[in-house]
Amino acid sequence: MNQPIRLAKFLGHAGVCSRRQASRLIDAGEVRVNGRCANHIDHVTEKDIVIVHGKQIKTLPDKVLYAYHKPVGIDCKLNESDPASLIHYLPKSQRVYPIGRLDKDSRGLLLLTNNGELCNQMLHPEHHEKKVYLVKVDRPLDPLFCERMANGIPIDNKVTLPCDVKLISTDRFMITLQQGLNRQIRKMSQHCGYQVIDLFRVKIANYTLDPDTLTEGTHQLISINDLKIEQK
């Protein structure tokens, strides 16, 4: 890297954190550049001395992308003091972080990366990639359930965006979201009078989890091309 790039982008590329998280670290005074406290307009190269939390960020590692089959009980918050935190189950070779989250009671596909640009692209509201979930509820579904869910449900003082919902069996449905509100499917289902007892994410963008190949609790390297998204 010969051309200077903005500090937050550098930290994202280095796999330290996402650019949004980098901005928070800069605000908190946790980032130093060449011995001084960093600011948001700083541009750096690999020749600059960048220190985060007292540790020098020396080189930009190769960008990697993993698919991870998350079990129930793993918390996606990267909290080292929590034995159930995802941080204890991440690949050890490079620091990566999840693109989005699954709540602790849910399972299925997570994408892990040190590519801050990819993370920002996939999480940006204008480019939010579709995610597909298989959901089991506590009792037989009403015939109008899918239509109600698809048209939008009021949760957390807002109405969810229209989505695709298909009945799979008497108590199971498949839902495709292009939105990422906190515990969205559980809250939508609860509003309709149902309790979610199993939530399994099977697809992000155009990458589908194959449980036979990627067993629960394991991860594997994949290519960004596997996502089949328009790269920015």
Give a description of the structure:
- By secondary structure, the chain is an alpha+beta fold.
- The chain contains 5 helices and 17 strands.
- A hairpin with a 2-residue loop joins strand 2 and strand 3.
- Helix 1 packs across helix 2.
- The protein is elongated.
Quick recap:
With 232 residues, this protein is α+β, with helices and mostly antiparallel strands. It has 5 helices and 17 strands.
Question: Which helices and strands appear, and what pairs or packs with what?
Answer:
Blueprint: E1 5-6, H1 7-13, H2 19-27, E2 31-33, E3 36-37, E4 43-44, E5 50-52, E6 55-57, E7 65-70, E8 97-98, E9 107-113, H3 116-123, E10 131-137, H4 145-151, E11 154-155, E12 158-159, E13 164-169, E14 172-177, H5 184-191, E15 196-204, E16 207-208, E17 219-221
Parallel strand pairs: 9-15
Antiparallel strand pairs: 1-4, 2-3, 2-5, 5-6, 7-9, 7-17, 8-9, 10-14, 10-15, 11-12, 13-14, 15-16
For the record, give the distance between the C-alpha atoms at the N and C termini, rounded to a whole number: 18 Å
Radius of gyration, rounded? 20 Å
- What overall geometry do the principal axes of the alpha carbons give? elongated
Q: Write the element-wise H/E pattern from the N-terminal end onward.
A: EHHEEEEEEEEHEHEEEEHEEE
**On the 0-100 scale, what is the average pLDDT?**
90
Helix content: 10-25%
Give a count of the beta strands, DSSP E runs of length 2 or more: 17
Our count of helices gives 5
What class would the helix/strand composition place it in?
alpha+beta
In terms of DSSP E residues, the strand content is 25-35%
Largest sheet: 9 strands, mixed
Low-confidence segments = none
